[in-house]
């Protein structure tokens, strides 16, 4: 398999699209090879079927110019299958050798997002250990950086990415998830179909305003970010 530049990991289809859809679209437009991977198929979601969600996820990835991979660990049981999840992600990281990996922010109202965050952090670290899973046949490799995107709520980010020119593309990608964000007579009321997308866009408008742009997505980093050019000339 040829290497990718960016790997965005989510617990469910739509996680990364919510948190960093604009950034993924921007990176793809800049010529970087990007990929999404989901740990579960979100089979316990209140609305939509697994089959519908898979089609929606494939369409959303296409809109963002990203490749897509799907694992099939049981929804709401990531903590139970934690060692297996870590091992599976280690194999993906070693095989595709992404420069940067993104995971959900650990501090999130949905427990799966927090579990996913911890699993990704361990996998990124373990992927660089030569004696971890030597039987996998893949050489040890550790990405340059691991960053965290926000799904629910508002955080004070360590850095933001200007997505002003890509917000429409993000809207289009999220609109693919009709089973999750559109409410009809058959669907159950959830946080996702009661003004959720408007709240996400409002958050990005706020972050953009604080950074001096129209829209921005915020990210966290475990390590200090090195500024190579303070003047910016």
Task: Record the SSE blueprint.
Layout lengths: L5 E5 L4 H15 L4 E5 L11 H15 L2 E4 L11 H15 L3 E5 L6 H16 L18 E5 L9 E4 L4 H9 L2 H4 L14 H16 L4 E6 L12
Parallel strand pairs: 1-2, 1-4, 2-3, 4-5
Antiparallel strand pairs: 5-7, 6-7
Pfam families: PIG-L
Cofactor: Zn(2+)
InterPro entries: Bacillithiol_biosynth_BshB1, GlcNAc_PI_deacetylase-related, LmbE-like_dom_sf
Strand content: 5-15%
Number of helices, counting only DSSP H or I runs of 4 residues or more: 7
The biggest beta sheet is recorded as: 7 strands, mixed
Q: Helical proportion?
A: 25-40%
- Any idea how many domains? 1
CATH topology name, in short, is Rossmann fold
Strand adjacency order, main sheet: 3-2-1-4-5-7-6
- CATH architecture annotation: 3-Layer(aba) Sandwich
Name the CATH class. Alpha Beta
Evaluate the radius of gyration.
17 Å
Number of E-state strands: 7
Which H/E pattern describes the elements? Answer: EHEHEHEHEEHHHE
Relevant CATH superfamily: LmbE-like
Average pLDDT:
96
Distance between the termini: 38 Å
Secondary-structure class: alpha/beta
Gross morphology: globular
**Low-confidence runs of at least 5 consecutive residues:** none
């Amino acid at each position: 398999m040829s290497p990718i530049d960016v790997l965005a990991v989510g617990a469910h289809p739509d996680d990364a699209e919510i948190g960093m859809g604009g950034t993924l679209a921007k990176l793809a437009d800049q010529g970087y090879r990007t990929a999404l991977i989901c740990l579960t198929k979100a089979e316990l979601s209140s609305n939509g079927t697994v089959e519908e969600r898979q089609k929606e996820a494939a369409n959303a990835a296409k809109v963002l110019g990203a490749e897509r991979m799907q694992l099939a660990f049981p929804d709401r049981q990531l903590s139970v299958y934690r060692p297996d999840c870590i091992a599976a992600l280690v194999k993906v990281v070693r095989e595709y050798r992404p420069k940067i990996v993104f995971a959900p922010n650990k501090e999130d109202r949905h427990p799966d997002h927090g579990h996913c965050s911890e699993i990704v952090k361990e996998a990124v670290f373990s992927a660089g250990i030569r004696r971890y899973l030597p039987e996998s046949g893949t050489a040890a490799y550790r990405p340059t950086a691991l960053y965290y995107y926000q799904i629910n709520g508002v955080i004070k980010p360590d850095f933001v990415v200007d997505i002003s020119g890509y917000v429409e593309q993000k809207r289009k990608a999220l609109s693919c998830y009709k089973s999750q964000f559109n409410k009809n007579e058959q669907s159950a009321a959830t946080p996702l179909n009661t003004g959720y997308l408007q709240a996400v866009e409002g958050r990005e408008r706020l972050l953009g305003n604080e950074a001096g742009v129209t829209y921005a997505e915020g990210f966290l980093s475990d390590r200090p970010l090195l500024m190579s050019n303070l003047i910016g000339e």
